[in-house]
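So, is this right?
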Amino acid sequence: MAVLLLIRHATNDFVKTGRLPGRTPNIHLNEEGRRQADALRAHLAPQHLDAVYSSQLERAIETAWRIAAHRALPIYVRPDLADIDNGTFTGRVIKDITEDPASKDLWKIVVETPSAAAFPNGEAMLDMQRRVVAQIDALALAHPDVETPAVEPNAQPTRTPQIVAVVMHADPIKAALAHYLGMPFDFFQRLGVAPASISTVVLNPADPAHKPQILGVNRIPY
């Protein structure tokens, strides 16, 4: 099994504009976000980590760097951890979307029944959940327990779960948590995931009998 720390990237100025970021490039952490990421690094300092993964978006990589750099760990970039593709809605002001006759009905679906929502020229929200869950399961499979041979005769070897940091985005984290909790997808936005927060999941996809364990949601280190 693997212990996965699902970490939302720290904050940035773009979120304060009321726009949908989606996969907009060149969104960087602001001063507040850098403080959050530094607090996250300090919080995780005593924690052993076996690997650090990130989406390809700058705000996630900049957060992951603060976790990985002092450990001399590489950051493995996985595009399937990216935020949802908002298609033609990318960068639009949410208030405008809710008031525009051409988009307000679709936005109502996004908010009320996201399982039925798909962004024009972008991604269906359920497809986002499937993509992210498949990637997280793959990471868990890639990090099986570390086995240490027994010292005493006839003793069993010890098995230690690997601990993996996965830096990604709010909606993908909430969608993944909803899946592992067995929560209907239409309720996934009820979960809170703050910037630079940690949600901890234990997975063993190789064992069909193993049930996911959620050890914590939205732990905020600042």
Residues 22 and 84 are 6 Å apart (CA to CA). The chain has six helices and eight strands. The domain at 9-83+126-219 is CATH 3.40.50.1240 (Rossmann fold).
